[in-house]
Design goal:
- 2 copies of one chain form a homodimer.
- With 431 residues, chain A is of the alpha/beta class.
- Chain A folds into 3 domains: 3-135 and 303-333, Rossmann fold; 138-299, Dihydrodipicolinate Reductase, domain 2 (2-Layer Sandwich); 345-429, Alpha-Beta Plaits, CATH 3.30.70.
- Chain A contains 14 helices and 19 strands.
- Chain A has helices at 13-24, 26-33, 64-69, 85-95, 105-121, 138-145, 160-172, 176-185, 194-197, 200-214, 233-241, 303-323, 364-374, 404-415, and strands spanning 3-9, 36-43, 60-61, 75-78, 100-102, 126-127, 151-157, 216-217, 224-225, 244-255, 258-269, 281-288, 292-299, 336-339, 349-359, 379-384, 392-399, 402-403, 425-429.
- In chain A, the strands form 3 sheets. In chain A, strands 7, 9, 10, 11, 12, 13, 15, 16, 17, 18 and 19 form an 11-stranded mixed β-sheet that branches.
- In chain A, strand 4, helix 4 (85-95) and strand 5 (100-102) form a beta-alpha-beta unit.
- In chain A, helix 7 crosses helix 8.
- The N and C termini of chain A lie far apart (53 Å).
- The relative contact order of chain A is 0.13.
- At the A-B interface, helix 1, helix 2, helix 6, strand 13 and helix 12 of A face helix 1, helix 2, helix 6, strand 13 and helix 12 of B.
- Strand 13 of chain A pairs antiparallel with strand 13 (292-299) of chain B.
């Protein structure tokens, strides 16, 4: 049986998971693939720490380039993270004509166009199953399973940290800061959680999915991003009372040929298939013209789920190396380096949840309604509960579909009124 | 751009869907694949009926062999159904060295071992994405996405007809017969519904999934099959009152190296991810050692969802033909023609739902409990409601985990007692 050599760059959490997966299921993999996967090189600056897996010291090196150019290495796995060194190492690997597997969504979101283009020109496969959805084989599903389908929309819960925080806030009645601390204690959030809670990680994954679905370059800076930092428990409670749950969503839509890509907290009806996705789980709902609605659900992160995805990419490439067919692997996501056009904010319509802070006196609600109406925002329902604690009472309004810019302008006017207290909270509703 | 010729055998509902999909998304497919898919031959006994799609009469034939052996045909798509003619035509295609794509789960469940073996010997790919889960790319997910994973269990709602019937019974308070009639009227059930409602279609799909997951031949006759025919609405109501929903499940388990494959109606807790799958939707939950739990959900049947899966198989093969690499396509499911060992019924444990029909008089429940206890079946909860209509009252018992044979023996004894009316209804609980 042929052996295919693997060079691992980055021996952190996921790297150790890949080694564990390869060791644990080695005979099973060989039987399924008809090829043996052999770990030939592991590069990391830290050669000392115990990762809980055994690796022969002789194959370890501090020099990533040594691993890349070792003739015994047929496939290079980049698990270093970051967008500078990783980018250089991947470029160097592709230039050397060797296939690459990466889990690096930030890198793909920022430099995907360049790297996919290089890989295409060099006829070298670039695997990235692990970049979105951890152990969920979503890249395969979207690129190969739905290859015949025109994708109209993708809705994703793509960040386990945020979903874990929102779930704990809801289930244990925690404030955002306390749920974040709990997530950090459990190892589900980084000491610096900005990448997750400010929505950037979700945006990176949204860019990868949109690139696959629509086949053009998707500039990261065209994605509207809003995270869950400071999410008020009160809004989750009001939403729940109205039959909605708040989730951090990536929403990718094809509106008549123009892309609308957004990351933000959104209200989902309780019977929506995504609203029951809790804890660190991820899920992706795809709407397409032939298959209809399909949903993919699983652990969005963690060492072994991510390792499962990495090894699946290695396996496909290993068969192509062993039996021929590198050029027939699924084509790269970019069928065009030109970016698809994006919708203007004016065209982006939605229903909205608005929580206003108002003085409880006659005529106030009427004034609001007038301002909203003048901006073509019509009210679907109002929730105002008696509350005697402060000078202001919360008033929750659900609107009918309205243009985002109209809602923004109306809210800006409303927030300047004398009888309005704190700034209005505005969240989208996805039905 | 290269063109790959398709020969279609069977121009029924799904066949017409495939033609529609190929026509509708032709430029998109070409852009994504780098290859053009060209319909070159359509074979069907009926050349007259209008299928709602336009096909050049010149490429139509009544002779499937003409399509198979046409030099312009590179890939043959079998959508005839049945297990006799289809088997012969697929054998003939493979013998001729041409790749085959099929949606025929009955054929694969009965003659998969033979066909996969032949395809392997001839180095010819055999695509069957459409055989399970309609538009859900479950074959790819299991075979390629989870290639690194040891699968411990698969739970599937695999038959849209049954799930539609159960959903209507529950939502509209219909008896089984009325829900079946409704399904037939909507086109979701055949005039002869036996294949669906007796569980055989689900069993065929379970065999395909088990073959992929465990890599050995899975004899269909080793699968325990019980359908939903005659399912009593009362049992669904009692189950719901106790926090469970009844679904027709395929359950595939690896119990320490032995297979346990069953198809039967089962009680699922309301918070179980599969219990909210309603109507004609299918879902497959996979438990594996690296990825953990992953779930795949979508339309399990229908012309366009099935066409999406068929065209995805054609596409993979088309790239392999155009760019080389036929031998590197994912290997066939059988790594061994030897069947995996199966568990004995004695070893198969579960919790059970039992509905007994008892005379309402003192001491009766005690006698039941004694008989169950003597067979190592212990009671978790009892539900007995006052009911004065007949001589007998229903008593519902949920058991703790017990061996299936113990439960069967106990129930057989109980059903012979003088104070027992109708035969006891026994359903498994999957937690």
């Amino acid at each position: 049986m042929k052996e295919i050599g693997i060079g691992l760059l980055g021996f952190g959490t996921v790297g150790a998971g890949v080694v564990e997966g390869l060791q644990k299921n080695s005979p099973l993999l060989a039987r399924r693939l008809g090829v043996r996967l052999a770990l030939r090189r592991v590069a990391d600056l830290d050669l000392e720490s115990d990762r809980g897996v055994k690796v022969d010291r002789a194959i370890m090196t501090r020099d990533a380039r040594e691993a890349i150019h070792d003739p015994a290495v047929d496939v290079v796995v980049e698990l270093i993270g970051g967008t500078d060194v990783a980018r250089e190492l991947i470029r160097e690997t592709i230039e050397a004509g060797k296939p690459v597997v990466t889990a690096n969504k930030a890198l793909l979101a920022k430099h995907g166009a360049e790297l996919f283009d290089l890989a295409f020109r060099k006829s070298v496969p670039l695997g990235f199953e692990a970049s979105v959805g951890g152990g969920i084989p979503i890249i395969r599903a979207l690129r190969e399973g739905l290859v015949a389908d025109r994708i109209s929309a993708i809705f994703g819960i793509l960040n386990g940290t945020c979903n874990y925080i929102l779930t704990r806030m809801e289930n244990e009645n925690l404030a955002f800061d306390d749920a974040l601390k709990a997530a950090q204690k459990e190892g589900y959030a980084e000491a610096n959680p900005a990448l997750d809670i400010d929505g950037h990680d979700t945006a990176h994954k949204a860019v990868v999915l949109a690139t696959l679905a629509f086949g053009g370059a998707v500039p990261l800076d065209r994605v509207h991003v809003q995270g869950i930092r400071g999410m008020a428990k009160a809004d989750m409670d009001y939403a729940l009372g109205l039959g909605y749950r708040v989730k951090l969503l990536a929403v990718i839509r094809n509106r008549g040929g123009s892309l609308d890509i957004r990351v933000h907290p959104a209200l989902l009806p309780l019977d929506h298939v995504l609203s029951s996705v809790s804890g660190v789980y991820n899920a992706i709902l795809i709407e397409s013209d032939l298959a209809g609605k399909t949903l993919y659900y699983g652990r969005g992160a963690g060492r072994l789920p991510t390792a499962s995805a990495v090894i699946s990419d290695i396996s496909t490439i290993a068969r192509a190396i062993a039996f021929g067919g590198m050029r027939s692997l699924p084509s790269l996501p970019m069928t065009s380096r030109k970016s698809a056009p994006f919708v203007n904010a004016e065209e982006s319509e939605s229903r909205f949840y608005l929580r206003m802070s108002l003085q409880d006196r006659p005529g106030v609600l009427g004034k609001l309604a007038t301002i909203l109406g003048r901006h073509n925002v019509s009210i679907a329902s109002v929730l105002q509960q008696e509350e005697r604690r402060g000078r202001h009472v919360p008033v929750v309004i659900l609107t009918h579909r309205a243009a985002e810019t109209d809602v923004r302008r109306a809210v800006a006017l409303i927030d300047r009124l004398r009888f309005v207290g704190n700034r209005t909270v505005s969240l989208r509703i996805e039905d």
